Amino acid sequence: MAVATPTFRTDAFIDGTFRPAASGARFPTENPATGQQLAEIAAGDIEDVDVAVRAARRAFNAGTWSKRSPTERKQILLAFADLLEANAEELAQLESLDAGKPITDCRDVDIPETIRTFRWYAEALDKVFDAVAPTGHDALGLIIREPIGVVGAVLPWNFPLMMAAWKAAPALAAGNSLIIKPAELTSLSTLRMAELAAEAGIPDGVLGVVPGLGETAGQALGRHMDVDALSFTGSTEVGRMFLRYSSESNLKEIVLECGGKSPQVIMGDAPDLDYVADQVLFAGFMNMGENCTCGSRLIVHRSVRDELIDKLVSKAADWPVGDPLDPATRIGPMIERPHLDKVLGYIAAGRAEGARVVVGGGRTLESSGGHFVEPTVFDDVDNSMKIAREEIFGPVISTIPFDTEDEAIAIANETSYGLAASLYTTDLDTAFRLARAIKAGTVSVNSYSEGDITTPFGGFKQSGFGGRDKGLEAFDQYTQKKTVWVTLR
Ligand code: NAP
Ligand code: MG
User: Ligand 1 within 6 A of 243 CB?
Assistant: First the structure.
């Protein structure tokens, strides 16, 4: 395939133009497959966030976007999606270089999903109706959705462009102005996206990108007195901080999409174990396990456990680790050295607590300078072990056996998280019983899945709070309801 040369945009995108940070400061971004620096990115801080927010508010009040007709907003967002598609290969290369994601995933999943997300919200925005209350004849009660105003989005590094799209598409479709703070490790694709948005006709100020560190740029957005809502995706630990930022500033609406420790429950009557093994590895290893819905706890009925483990061991070879730009690679490097060390630390903790490594278990491809780890499967895990309790965010699956359905449900729910779950059974009653019993925002039956763009996505318990990404439900994050009560005389 022809290799498009990626364009590195390294300045903040504010009010329709690229500009360095007010302080002039920059921070490096590296290629995690080599450990080499790719570029130096403008380090936005309080002042840059403030300039971006003021531009966003100006645009919102002027109505250049917020008061455009739905049909016009739709046309511009569709043109934007077309431009993303025309530049898909370049965006895939950028994502792969900056985040270490396998190029095949970028080409087949991240970039197509990003484009689909913009198209879906563009198409949805002129088909959502408001409501009229069931009043008596002496009144008319209108329940109207209005865009919320200036929205902030603070994003993680694991699906840089897709997460930007999950926030930006519904926020812009609803008529808001939006400022994105990408993860410091992966700013490049989001900056390029903003440039394409401007080219498609999104007016100045409506979509800003302020790259920078979490404690500075992220916190500044969280504490800004003129940001009306902030949609966060990242760790539960940082998610908590945004609730504090909001409570200590202007009570901006906060939506949190946080971590997970998702169970994969395999009942004794699970369908075709070859198929199940493929799905189990996909759930655990997809995106290097750097995935909020990573199926990191394999809860398996003792009657099929040995056979399933044998299949996992042989099928692990279907997950080659290597250069992310090689189309055959399915597992790229961990995002950065400290994260590699964290994942290796969990593997060591698993061994120390008595779990048994049946696949992988070590660092690999060290001479590349990249942060590679072998995809790893543990057997003999107890749900109280550290590897079963904490989010590892690497390609590590912990196998926990069970004997009864009640036991399986108890183990699945014995976690502070509740983002996703999958379950495997050929019995319809069992499937629905478990789907009801498992406390998670998305429960997949007989596959690993996060649903699609039509279905809402978010977590129970400490996986999330305040709203949902995807589906028509995402509009609730970015709109507020106004009642207009008309007295008829
Ligand atoms: P993270 O460390 O929580 O960072 C997320 C974002 O918050 C980054 O932009 C980060 O900036 C910023 N941030 C960090 N410290 C901050 C602070 N003190 N104040 C304000 N902002 C701050 O998460 P991550 O490591 O990038 O991503 C992995 C996590 O995201 C995992 O827990 C994963 O489960 C979760 N995730 C959840 C979903 C979902 O939909 N539920 C989807 C994807 C990922 P820096 O980049 O400078 O640190
Ligand atoms: Mg990078």
Answer: no
Give the closest residue to 294 by CA, choosing from 376, 410, 405, 214: 376
Instruction: Determine how β-strand 363-364 pairs with β-strand 356-359.
Output: unpaired
Residue-level pLDDT at 1: 45
pLDDT score, position 128: 96
| Measured CA distances, 428 to 251, 274, 275, 402, 443 (Å) | 45, 20, 18, 20, 14
Q: What is the pLDDT of residue 6?
A: 86
Centre of ligand 1 from the C-alpha of residue 145, in Å: 30
* Pocket mutation for ligand 1, best pick of 158, 249, 342 (most atoms within 8 Å of C-beta): 158
Position in ligand 1 atom list of the atom nearest CA 182: 9
Q: Whose CA is nearest to atom 32 of ligand 1?
A: 235
238 CA distance to ligand 1 middle (Å): 6
Q: Which CATH class is domain 263-452?
A: alpha beta
User: Tell me, which fold does domain 12-258+464-485 have in CATH?
Assistant: Aldehyde Dehydrogenase; Chain A, domain 1 (3.40.605)
- The answer to whether the pTM exceeds 0.70 is yes
Please report the pLDDT score of residue 7 as a whole number. Answer: 81
DSSP one-letter code for 289: G
The low-confidence residues of the chain, meaning pLDDT below 50, are 1-2
- Ligand 2 centroid–CA 136 distance in Å is 60
Which candidate in 257, 290, 336, 374 is catalytic? 257
292 is known as an active-site residue = yes
**∠ at Cα 210 (30, 212), nearest 5°?**
45
How far is C-alpha 264 from the chain's CA centre? 20
Residue owning tokens 């502070």: 416
Sketch the domain layout of the chain as residue ranges: 12-258+464-485, 263-452
Query: What distance in angstroms lies between residue 235's CA and the mean position of ligand 1's atoms?
Result: 5
SS3 at position 74: helix
Of ligand 1's atoms, which has the minimum distance to the CA of residue 393?
Answer: 31
pLDDT at site 3: 54
Told to judge if 258 belongs to the known catalytic residues of this protein, a careful annotator would answer no
> In terms of residues, how long is the chain?
489
pLDDT digits (tens, 9 = 90+) for 360-396: 999 999 999 999 999 999 999 999 999 999 999 999 9
Tell the burial category of 480 from Cβ atoms under 10 Å away from its Cβ (0-12, 13-18, 19+).
middle
Residue 151 tokens read as 């929205």
Question: Which residue among 238, 248, 455 is best mutated to probe the pocket of ligand 1, counting the most ligand atoms within 8 A of its Cβ?
Answer: 238
